[in-house]
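thread: overnight batch results

M.L. [08:02]
morning all. the overnight job finished for the chain we discussed friday. pasting input first so we're all looking at the same thing
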Amino acid sequence: MTLKNYILSMSFLSLVCWGAFFFVAGMINPFSTSWLGLLLFYTTLSASLIGTSSILGLVIRFFSHKEQAIFNSVRNSFRQSFLFSIFIVLLLLLKSLDLFSWINLAILITIFAILEFILRPRKKQ
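M.L. [08:03]
and the structure it wrote out:
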């Protein structure tokens, strides 16, 4: 897949995911919905954030790290957008359960920093 096809397909799928998210958000009453409604809400939000932040991360990497191979930029931006999406969804979930605090935020940041450190590719020597 070429970079142009990747960006076009990711952009299209991100728009579809955002459309699904706004449809779900408009149809669900968060105070009276079941777990399925909340699952749909958080899943569509996560998919939308992954697509959008992956494209934005790739564009930023493309202009700031011109010496890096484009495949590495795509892989890194997708990995970081996946972690970013899970981070945001977990924050919103904690907030909806009235469990959000600065201590929980610090713990989540620490966990995701460790995950990023573990999941990033190592340079071969």
